[in-house]
Amino acid sequence: MAKLIIVSNRLPVKLQEKDGKLTYSPSEGGLATGLGSIYKKKDNLWIGWPGMVIEEVDKQEKVIEDIRKDNMYPVFLTEQEVKEFYEGFSNETLWPTFHYFSQYAIYEQNLWETYVEVNQKYCDEILKHASPNDTIWVHDYQLLLLPSMLREKLPDATIGFFQHIPFPSYEVFRLLPWRKELLEGMLGADLVGFHTYDDMRHFLSSVNRLIGYGGMHGWINTGSRSLLVDSFPMGIDYEKYSEVAASAEVLKLEEQYRKNVGTENIIISIDRLDYSKGIPQRLQAFELFLERYPEFHGKVTLVMLVVPSRDAVEKYKELKEEVDELVGRINGKYSDINWNPIQYFYRSLPLEVLSAFYRMANVALVTPMRDGMNLVCKEYVASKLDQKGVLILSEMAGASKELSDALLINPNDINKIVEAMYEALTMPEEEQKVHMANMQDTLKRYNIHHWVSLFMDRLSYVKIKQMSLETSYLDDATFQEMSDSYELASSRLIFLEYDGALTNYKAKPLMARPDEDLLELLESLSANPKNRVVVISSREKANMEDWLGHLSLDIVAEHGVWLKQRGSGWKTMMSLMDDWKSDIRLILELYVDRTPGSFIEEKEYSLVWHYRRVETGLGELRARELVNHLNFLATNSNLQVLDGQMAVEIKAQEVNKGKATSHWLNMYPHEFVLAIGDDWGDEEIFKAMPRNAYTIKTGNSYSIAKYHLDGPGEVRDMLTRLVKQETKEFPPNAKMTG
Ligand code: GDG
């Protein structure tokens, strides 16, 4: 039975050692709760670091034994690995970059190398437990390389990846020296998930610009696989938070804390110590609020919980000092014998205390500079059983996309934060309740269980969809079958697309001139009197004539405008009018004016607007505009608009490669038919083929072809094998005349 393996940097358990004794306490994180009902089932497993360096083998064995019964398996990290992989590359390179703090990022080769090694360490550990068809769900930025490492060893596994922190815009992501390797690592997954649509959009744009893979509706085609990128906003365990908030213990705590705080208004602020959370900026806003609204002196308290985090990293130590100083300054300036404006706690507190804080606060101030999602604000909403309270939320938190009933602020706009505090503290109760109820409805529905099942369902869907998108590989058995029917047939038609099927694409089209091997192959294939070999191209006829005109081949040029049968001259099938060209050219010229780097190519019966030299992104944008514009004009004409590889082509509708190939199918007997193509235009060829034809596409992307081969090299090998079957009867240099 296939099982599920969850992998994250940390296991959902906290391991500690007291007086030589190991103790384990379950982690209260949202992820652990959400996945708890899954990883504990049957053979499922959670693999990760237990959070403590353990070097002694006997102790390691003890840990393995202790947590095995809870379906967990540890990856042990050395002191140096923790320093370089976790604190170093993960938290000093990736974390600041992904949170738009690239000025804090360090780029050190040795940290990168340890990051690669530790990802490999996780991979090796997983491979000890995984079977070929298992589902593996990898979490977060510490393990970006893992999906591809796993894919290499387990090509059929179902691999999901979820990133809990933001994915930055291409302009920021490109600053990383190892940007391509990181993206390639992630692309090993079948499904890549982010919290928001913006993260997903940024990722797709980086993949497109740095690796060159395009995408449609979130699908990325790598040439050999298709994978999906989608957004899954993570929810909380709503029931758990509302139940804890209703418990007698929490009610008692709330009463006690209210008394201790002493003011009628309480603003809460809860975060891990992190510069992405905007803690100093929040304090400055509170200071300005006190300055601007003296009527609140003695009447409002900011209860601020900062949870220690990453204190071995220099930037976090500096931040701690900054926060301490700010709190000291504000309290020093405003407090009196009865009132301390800020109650500051630098520690971790139990869930019940947190819940009492949530309950007693009229306002939650959640103002991160950048946050993947932010769960604190969701927990606050879930704890507000009487629906009284206001959430002030940063637009830069993923959660702001769902919680539009919060007072949304830009965390850099200190005046707006101050005004939002005033608005929140003076908001009528009825209004508070309306907003809170709306937010609660959203969070109840999109809770953590919903998030897990949505991701898992989507992952299964991707696997099914991949199967339907893929053509089968032309393996040896199919080749034998094809070769037998080739041999038995007394008449054969062989259609071969030139670029992409017989030769690789080159930077410039004229560099794809046929080499000696290809000329020899085409010559021997067409030398057999049973064969008619038709080479098809969208290239100009003069180009095809120059390269292949001397062989006894049939040729289709310019998508089927021009046909040449062996032994005779070029003919056009239709009497085409090209009086449309002058009008369309004027439009294309407008687009050239607006798009530096683009140019127009005029073919005999078509016009092409090329944008491969245009700034990435701008070219695609203008191309979409142009296609819409032309499609509108083409509705009542016989023109066809083709949105191609870095080019938009306009041609007369009656011209296409499918029509051209039908011409041969109608004219010549064909007991055996083979067609090989490589891109969108060649689907027309496949559509025109009889049912018994062998249709092959190069690359394994969506196609109606029956089979695929990996590229022109494999196509040539396959054709060579076919030819060899009959070389005894027909020596390779025997020539046919038309
Ligand atoms: C990352 C992303 C994304 C805090 N103090 C205490 C305590 N907490 C709990 C909160 C909340 C969690 O920690 C913090 O979650 P956040 O989402 O706010 O932030 P990150 O830790 O940075 O998490 C973030 C998240 O991943 C999930 O994808 O939302 O954007 O950065 O649950 O309640 N819990 C207890 N005591 C504390 O003192 N018990």
Task: Please give a structural write-up.
- With 738 residues, the chain is an alpha/beta fold.
- It is 43% helix and 20% strand.
- The protein is built from 25 helices and 30 strands.
- The strands form five sheets. A nine-stranded mixed sheet has the order 5-4-1-6-7-8-11-10-9, with helices on both faces. Strands 18-30-29-28-19-20-21-22-23 form a nine-stranded mixed sheet, sandwiched between helices. A six-stranded parallel sheet has the order 14-13-12-15-16-17, sandwiched between helices.
- It is elongated, with a radius of gyration of 33 Å.
- The chain starts with a strand and ends in a 13-residue tail after the last helix.
- Bound molecules: GDP-alpha-D-glucose.
- Pathway: Glycan biosynthesis; trehalose biosynthesis.
- InterPro entries: Glyco_trans_20, HAD-like_sf, HAD-SF_hydro_IIB, HAD_sf, Trehalose_OtsA, Trehalose_PPase.
- This is Alpha,alpha-trehalose-phosphate synthase.
- It catalyses: D-glucose 6-phosphate + UDP-alpha-D-glucose = alpha,alpha-trehalose 6-phosphate + UDP + H(+).
